[in-house]
Amino acid sequence: AQALWACGRMVAFEDPLRDKIEFGSEMPPPYLPYAKKYASFLLSSKDDLSPKDVAQSIWALGRLKISDNDILEPFGELAVKISSSCNSQEIANILWGLGTLRYDRGDNVAVLLHRICTSPSLREECTSQEAANIMYALGRMKIHDKDAFDCFSSIMMDRLSDATPQGIANALWAHEAVKISPPRGLLDCWAKKKLGIVGLMLKKEDEEK
User: Does residue 35 have a pLDDT over 70?
Assistant: First the structure.
């Protein structure tokens, strides 16, 4: 699992540089065949994998864009199987990986969403970044689940001071992708953090009243 995760980390590091190095922007990294072998090996001993192993592996599949059915489908099923033992970070990493690959098993995704949204302890530990990543994943998969968006928007709104402009932008993009209106506070916070204009906007509105 660590070897597969390391491959995902390498490609994440290379992404901004791909046009500047010999691989080019379209050619897959030379270690991709090895990553697929690692993934297949992990599936052969899936009963021994921990929730962290599964989460890191699916995150790496997303980074490496490995969507082969004989790899992605078993990992998706495995994620559901171990979901009751996952923490919020692990579920966020799983959903990010699945979303990046545009995973089409909405029933399995629903189980993972249910794990966080119905658990007070997981909602409490879920960070603004994790919530943003989950919404981004739902947007990539075109999953219109208003209850889930309300859940993760609420988590972000409770932790706006920790939210990054990119995280908020990803959450807003996800809302748009599935045609769900985002909370006004999320829009205002993005404008303030990214552009520094909310105060001016509100002041102008007050002057016009």
Answer: yes
